[in-house]
Structure formats: C-alpha cells, structure tokens
Design a protein that fits this description.
Rossmann fold, 4-stranded parallel β-sheet, globular, binds iron/sulfur cluster
Amino acid sequence: MFITQSTTKNTHFSSLPDDLFAAIEDLKKELNAVILVHYYQEPDIQDIADYLGDSLTLSRQAATTDADVIVFAGVHFMAETAKILNPNKLVLLPDLDAGCSMADGCPPEEFAAFKAAHPDHLVVCYVNCSAAVKAMSDIICTSSNAVDIVNQIPKDQPIIFAPDKNLGRYVSEQTGRDLVLWDGSCMIHEIFSEKKIVQLKIEHPQAEFIAHPECEAPVLRHADYIGSTKALFEYSQGSAAEQFIVATEPGILYQMEKHMPHKQFIAAPATGNCACNECPHMRLNTLEKLYLAMKNRAPEITLPEDIRIAALKPMQRMLEMSAQLSVTKSMLSSV
Ligand code: SF4
C-alpha cells in the first residue's frame, strides 16, 4: 500500500504577522525557496508567485529550479510531482488536505488491475494522478501536451489513457486513435451546464466560448476554442473578441482580467445555483497557511523512494517529448 507521508498540518493562526506578503518575502530569502502557484489558487496567492502556471509549466519549473525549498500552492498530486523531480529538496504544500477528485478517483490498486487487463497497452496518464499511479505509467501528459504526446506514439500501439475520460475522449477525437479510457473525471469541469451556456451565448452573441478539455462532450461541442488553462489565457490574448465565456476553474479569470482589462470574461455557469466551479481542493490553500508552511517547514511531501524512481521515468519521458515538440514548433515558426 502506497502512503504519502507528511508532517503536521498548519491549523494555528494565532501568531500571524501584520504584513503577510512581506513576511513571506523574508522567508523566501531565508529558505532560498521558490513559490510555484497554479492558476486555480486565490488571487492573493497568485500575486506572490515566482512562477504561475498550469501543470506543464509548473512541472518544468520544478524540474529546473535551483531553490532549496519548493513551496507548491496547488493540490497534492502537483506537490508530489515536484518531489518526484526533486528528491533532495524540501517540498511544502500549504494544506495537506488539498487533494483532487480526479486523482482520488483512480486508486493505485484498482488501476493496477485495469492495467493488467490490457497487457499490450502503453499507459499514458494525465498528470492529475497519484505518484503510485504515475509509477505504473509509461508516459505522463498534461492537458497542454496530451494530443501531441499521443500523436508521437506509433499508430499500431494500443494505449490506455487515464484518469480523465473527458480529456481522453477529446484526445481520441483529435488524434483519431482508439484509447482505452479509465472512467474518471473532474468534479469541477463536469458540472458546467450546457443549457445555461447556450443561454449565455444567446445573451452575448459576440462572446467567444472557450473551454477546458476536462469538460464533458455536450459542453465542448459548443466551444469556439478548446485548450488547457494556459492555452485559454493565451487564446483570449490573441483573439480579436472582446467578450469570452470561460469554462474552467474561475481562478484563471483573475489573470485574464488583470492582463486584459479592456475585455470581459464571464465564468461559465454550473448546474444548480451554487458557485460550484471553484475547486474546493485548490481553495483549501490560503495565504496564511502558505506563510505557516514556510515558517514551520511543514507539511512536507515525502515519497517512498521506489515509488518516486518508478514515477520519475514517465515524467522525464513527458518532459523530453514536450521539449522536442517545443524545439520543433520554434523551428517551424522561424522558417
Ligand atoms: S479542478 Fe478538478 S482536476 Fe483540478 S484539482 Fe480540482 S478536482 Fe482536481
């Protein structure tokens, strides 16, 4: 049984400094720390990031940082990914309970049985999975590079794609490949309301509807553009449109509005009446907890070394394959 260990949780807020931003800056210098922040974090945390990005950007930063301490403001599997790449660094997660419904929906024991039932298949796993599931994979991918990575695999090679069936279906459509899909999904991206989005499009006929591929097929079929969180941000920068309906976790809207104040961004609505599109796992991290994690050097992410080594191989494969793609793309764009 695989267990990720950690030290104590940060639950005592009694002695917080008046200026948390300044205190975090001081601790950053003292620890030689780098703060990696996912787009789905609250605005205050986004503002103190050394690197802000999606999973691929942050994985690349984690792979190349020379800091001694990595403070990962994201969810558990992301901090684990940083630890896989940096066994000798202290990796801190502000709230250890910041998990992920998609990663939790792919238990290692059940995934091992699924893999055993498809012995000739190559295993491509979305980075949103535990270290133990990564350790059973051949290649890791992110929503930024999943299509390109599957396209690099020989056509006659059967593939398992896990754990997100929605991203898997999208990759299958884009590549023309039959993929064996694990039946998992994201609790945030699967609850967008197709009906309300269609209504919004009618009310805002000039708006472009842009969506993350973790959304379900009935929502994606209305999209003018589909891409990773970073790709949605970049698309909205390049587009001539002035209005966008955005179907992904609304944390990215903070960056969109900050960088494009002249454009309007409307968060796509969920089914029901709640603001359910904010990821409750991501939002467990707060600036206070981040400060305490740095002050206490805890909670720390640790991994059994055999799991870490096995998970490193498919991570490196992804970084190599996506680096090759970047080189090819930059060569193509320069001719
Ligand atoms: S938004 Fe979805 S995939 Fe991302 S951490 Fe939250 S539950 Fe997991």
